[in-house]
Each structure stands twice: as structure tokens, then as C-alpha cells.
Write a structure and sequence with these properties.
Number of domains: 1
Strand order of the largest sheet: 1-2
Order of helices and strands: HHHHHHHHHHEE
Radius of gyration: 18 Å
Bound molecules: zinc ion
Protein name: Reverse transcriptase zinc-binding domain-containing protein
Oligomer: single chain
Structural class: mainly alpha
Pfam families: zf-RVT
Largest sheet: 2 strands, antiparallel
Mean pLDDT: 75
Helix content: 40-55%
Number of strands: 2
Shape: globular
InterPro entries: RVT-Znf
């Protein structure tokens, strides 16, 4: 009821219309409709799938992240990261194709839906096998990721690996665009884990698929 009362009618007298929240244009697409249905089916009680307000303080500023990571998350959530779709929206680019697969490079595509991201997430050492491909938004993924517990030797209570994996995907994307060097998904996951260790424990330990190698 509160939310209904908070809706502001158009000052110019425009008539009401239906907007599909899962696309930037507001127009329904079969692809996003499928993702929404799957996400709701898989996680019907997830409030973010119902477009509830996002809590910045809890999810970002009070999170166990480095200041650099908080800024990265803030930029990503604000659509301020220079991914193709954001540059296109600001009229800074004519095309905005993903460097990995050629689809439109939005924030959600790059970090959650791209086949490259899918291949990286499959390597994540979580106790469950998350499928970010089903999550509609980066904010939903960030909130949901708190339930993705790391397996030893990283282990529960070490903090979320989610932002470090996103950061590594972002670095891999930039290295491919600007240096034409391709990091395989396994190298990207490796970078995420070593960066995470360096932040948490102040040293680099080489961890791979649950084993500490050095
Ligand atoms: Zn892609």
C-alpha cells in the first residue's frame, strides 16, 4: 500500500502504461520473461526478484570488502561501469558488443549471463552450484550471493567471494579488449581467489579447486 501511495502521477498528464522492469526499454522480451519465470520458480521468496528496494548500507558499504571493491560494486550497481550498454545509453558508442560472445554487453550480461561468465561461475568453490544466469539483476545476485558458502580452505566466515569473481571477470574483459590477451575462465577464477586471499589474509596463497598449492 505504501508503495502504491508513493507512485507519483505524471506532471504532464501522460496516461499510465505497463512497463516491463526486466529490460532497459521497458518492453517485454521472451528472453527476460523466461529468466524471470525461472528465477521466481527457483527462488520464490527472494524479495529482490520482486523488485524490492536495495539496501546499500547492508549490501555494499557495511560489507566485508576493501574500499576499492566497494567503489567497484557501487559503480556496477549504479550502471556507471563503462560496459558497452552503459556507453551506448550515454551516446558514447554506436555498438556495444560483448568481447566474448558478441551480444549486447550490459552489466548483467557481462557478470551473470555471458557464456564466459557462466564458465567462470561453474568453477567457483561454493558449497552449492549457483546459476547466476537465472538472476535478473546485479543487485539480486549480490544479495543472493551471501548464501553461497565457500568450501575449505577458504571456508565459511571468510566473507563473500562474489565481488572478487566479478572483479576478475571485469579485469579479464579489459585485458582482452585493451591488451588482446585472453584469460581462460580457470585463470580468471584463479585470480579472483588469489586476490581474495591477499585481501583477507595479507598474503597470496595459490588455491585451486579446494587445494592450497603454495
Ligand atoms: Zn558475452
Amino acid at each position: 500500500m505504501k508503495q502504491i501511495l508513493a507512485i507519483k502521477p505524471s506532471k504532464k498528464g501522460a496516461t499510465d502504461s505497463f512497463i516491463w522492469l526486466s529490460t532497459k526499454s521497458g518492453v517485454y522480451s521472451v528472453k527476460t520473461g523466461y529468466h524471470s519465470a525461472m528465477a521466481l520458480q527457483e527462488n520464490p521468496l527472494d524479495p529482490l526478484n520482486l523488485h524490492e528496494p536495495f539496501n546499500w548500507m547492508t549490501e555494499v558499504w557495511n560489507g566485508k570488502f576493501s574500499p576499492k571493491m566497494k567503489v567497484f560494486l557501487w559503480k556496477t550497481l549504479q550502471e556507471a561501469l563503462p560496459v558497452g550498454g552503459n556507453l551506448l545509453n550515454r551516446g558514447l558508442m554506436d555498438t556495444a558488443c560483448c568481447i566474448h560472445c558478441g551480444d549486447l554487453e550490459t552489466t548483467e550480461h557481462l557478470f551473470l549471463h555471458c557464456p564466459y561468465a557462466t564458465a567462470v561461475w561453474k568453477l567457483a568453490p561454493f558449497s552449492i552450484n549457483p546459476n547466476p544466469n537465472l538472476l535478473q539483476s546485479f543487485s539480486a545476485a549480490l544479495t543472493t550471493s551471501k548464501t553461497w558458502i565457500c568450501l575449505p580452505p577458504i571456508g565459511a566466515g571468510s566473507g563473500s567471494l562474489f565481488p572478487w569473481i566479478c572483479w576478475a571477470i571485469w579485469k579479464a574483459r579489459n585485458t582482452l579488449i585493451f591488451e588482446e590477451r585472453l584469460f581462460q575462465p580457470v585463470e580468471t577464477m584463479h585470480k579472483a581467489i588469489t586476490d581474495f586471499f591477499f585481501f583477507r589474509f595479507g598474503q597470496v596463497r595459490i588455491v585451486f579447486f579446494g587445494q592450497v598449492l603454495g
